[in-house]
Specification:
Elements: H1 16-43, H2 48-56, H3 75-88, H4 90-109, H5 112-124, E1 129-132, E2 148-152, E3 155-166, E4 173-179, E5 188-194, E6 200-202, E7 216-227, E8 231-232, H6 238-274, E9 276-277, E10 280-281, H7 286-314, H8 320-345, H9 356-366, H10 373-385
Parallel strand pairs: 1-4
Antiparallel strand pairs: 2-3, 3-7, 4-5, 5-8, 6-7, 9-10
Length: 390
């Protein structure tokens, strides 16, 4: 390795166990994920076997309690695992984040009986989850969702369409938010719907700019019947459950963004160390050195921001504002860093022979999912200045 090459991330971890865990994840990613990432993304192939391996390795359950088969790891550690996985392949890192999000409602709001019966299989039984909030006409304005659940005795019947569902059509279970009462946020309830429920179908996956290996699809609920034992929390509590999940989910997206940005920075560093022009490495040219310095600063700043928010969450302190800030900053930083990586590689950066162009395409979606960055600015501003006047 030349003096200019990429170096391992210097992580501040709370325990030796956490350090061993990150080493395990990095080795697993280098062996099982990175070698085929570009080829499989190009082919649009979903790596279900990787998620099975992650489940067997205990990596789909990290932030949840040991009594239900979880890894009992703090968010500070879990998010750095996500970062490593996303650096190897965003389809995998984001998929783990979505699965964790899908387990949140049951883990946080389910009854003891529900958790004991269902959570171990969801966390470590090889299952994969998805989260169903958005709809074709209810994206940023999620409280206006229209998918309806009607009760008949001890059974609910769900009808409607969900949109932009990561793992749509391949998940084993879906956490679904549906309207059970009045319009607005107070009439929404959460349900846990099995992936093979009768009347549940998925449309063809969306044709996307990036993350082609991760299926994103509409889900159609046509008279899907679920027992009341699959209702999570109280009737009308669903929107509060959703917001709680999204605060944590936004930290997952922030960590994934820094993973992609770190991968792009490493690619750029490796390239400028090996590329010679005018008789010397292009890493010697001040203009490029300044670009690298800015890229590295944004990566480190983003990592510090998401970890600060995670430590608030681990201490059971409010972290909603900080989660929005982390999601906003980290995903914007990922877009800037990946764009600069393409620029540093020149013409090669624009070809599919190098991963920089893939990182750039993937970074874009992170500014959109889990609440667009415009929504993050609204959330932050409300914490600072109070609600908008009506």
């Amino acid at each position: 390795m030349t003096e200019y090459g990429p170096r391992p991330v210097d992580r501040r971890l709370p325990t030796e166990e956490a350090r061993d865990l990150l080493t395990l994840v990095r080795e697993l990613a280098e062996r099982e994920i990175t070698p085929t990432a570009a080829e499989e993304e190009d082919a649009g192939r979903f790596p279900r076997e990787i998620f099975t391996l992650l489940s067997e390795s205990g990596l789909l359950s990290l932030p949840y309690a040991e009594e239900f088969g979880g890894g009992n790891q703090p968010y500070e550690v879990y998010l750095q695992v996500l970062e490593e996985l996303a650096a190897a392949r965003l389809t995998v890192g984001l998929g783990v984040s979505v699965h964790t999000l899908a387990c949140h409602a049951l883990a946080g709001y389910g009854s003891e009986k529900q958790r004991a019966e269902r959570l171990p299989a969801m966390l470590g039984g090889g299952l994969l989850g998805a989260y169903c909030l958005s709809e074709p006409s209810a994206g940023s304005d999620a409280a206006s969702l229209t998918t309806r659940a009607v009760r008949d005795g001890d059974t609910w019947t769900l009808d409607g369409t969900k949109a932009w569902i990561t793992h749509g059509g391949v998940a084993d279970f879906y956490t679904v938010l549906a309207r059970t009462g009045v319009s607005g946020p107070r009439g929404i309830t959460a349900f846990l719907v099995p992936g093979d429920a009768e009347g549940l179908s998925a449309a063809q996956p969306e044709r996307k700019m990036g993350m082609k290996g991760s299926p994103t699809a509409q889900l159609h609920f046509d008279g899907v019947r679920v027992p009341d034992s699959r209702r999570l929390g109280d009737e009308g509590q669903g929107f509060a459950i959703a917001l709680s999940a999204l605060d944590s989910g936004r930290l997952g997206i922030a960590a994934c963004a820094i993973g992609v940005a770190q991968a792009a920075l490493d690619e750029a560093l490796g390239y400028v160390a090996s590329r010679h022009q005018f008789g010397r490495p292009i890493a010697d040219f001040q203009g490029l050195r300044f670009m690298l310095a800015d890229m590295a600063t944004q990566v480190e700043a983003g990592r510090a921001l998401y970890l600060a928010a995670a430590r608030l969450r681990d201490a059971d302190l409010p972290f909603s504002k900080e989660a929005a800030m982390a999601k906003l900053f980290c995903t914007d930083a990922a877009m800037r860093v990946t764009t600069d990586a393409v620029q540093l590689l020149g013409g090669y950066g624009y070809t599919a022979d190098f991963p920089a162009e893939r990182y750039m395409r993937e970074a874009k979606v992170l500014q959109i999912v889990e609440g667009t960055n415009q929504i993050q600015r609204m959330v932050i501003a409300r914490h600072l200045a109070g609600p908008e006047s009506r």
